[in-house]
What does this fold into?
Amino acid sequence: TANSGTAGSGGAITITAQGNGISNGGLTIGAFNISSTASNTVAGSTGGTITIDAGGTTPGDLTLSSGSINAAAIGKAGAGGQILITAKTFTGAAGAQTFTANGATTAGGLGGAGGTVSLTTLGTTGNLTFGAGGLSLSATGGKAGGNGGTITASAGGNLTVTASNLTTGALAGTGSGGTINLSASTAGGNGTLSLSAALSANGAGTGDGGKINIINNSTAANAIVISATGTLDANAGGTSGKGGQILVQNNGNGGAGNITVQSAITANNRGAFTGGIIKIDASGGVTPANAGTI
It folds into this structure.
């Protein structure tokens, strides 16, 4: 742990195995709870920074067999910190596992913005799955207000979301929605990105809608599939505010990867403010005669 006391921010925890330019044996961490939180009642503090890095010139595999990672602000004020995880492949717990960088988690205070949670795999077999009872990433705004944070899940291979385990909205009071970045096939293969659960980056109160970016780099026949239950929302708060931004894009690596969208996608405004932006793009590396399915 590197938690703060009743004042100040959380500290830094770094676990690294980069191989120094040679073969990287990777990292295996058994039962654990890694924590760098801020426990404050005044504004200005943040959760700490937790880095687990098995990257380097020759990335290694990462196994986190059980436990949680927490860089939240757990008092009445303060912003969430950062959780940064990089490896060739990632293997998580068999059951529930949570990585949290939320803003102030105690109600009745000043609130605080969500932090950053980033999980990146660098290998072509580096698949990521977010399913029921499994891995969850959270960077919400505080319970008394605050903007949502940023969640990034970047897979060298396939990325699959079957449960709403990626949360980055503004929860209460006033706050803009956060940002959710999902990407697949970043290692140069032809993986798939499948979404069958709702994603939300909504604002609260007078906050604006946030951003959702869904990007693949694949020539697979079904490069991106968003089913009817995979709704995407980046709406303004309930009182007023601008609509957010939603991007669904397949770059195709010079080929013709298809995009299929069966769900509702909304980026609505509230009050006398502008609506959001929704862009669905299957044109990367695709000729007009062989466009994606949208």
Notes: The CA atoms of residues 228 and 263 lie 4 Å apart.
